[in-house]
Amino acid sequence: MKHANAYVAQLIDLYQLALTEYIKANKDTLDEIQAKMKDTVLRNAIAGINASNGAVR
């Protein structure tokens, strides 16, 4: 189990690094999408789901 926990921790770190690099590389596109979705029903629905799941940070 010791090795499994270390593997999972490294996998999480790798995922977070990949996500960070993706966001850096695609920031302009992501900002454009966010601006377009600012006042849409879908965005409001997603925010409501996140709030009800306690996922708001």
What does this structure look like?
82% of the residues lie in helices and 0% in strands. The chain contains three helices and no strands. The mean pLDDT is 83.
Instruction: Please compute the radius of gyration using only Cα atoms.
Output: 16 Å
The major β-sheet equals: none
Helix amount: over 70%
Multimerization status: single chain
Low-pLDDT sequence parts:
none
Please work out how many helical segments DSSP would assign.
3
Total strand count, please? 0
Shape: flat
Order of helices and strands: HHH
From the N-terminal CA to the C-terminal CA, the straight-line distance is: 31 Å
- How large a portion of the residues is in β-strands, by DSSP E? under 5%
Instruction: Look at the structure and give the mean pLDDT.
Output: 83
Task: Return the structural class.
Answer: mainly alpha
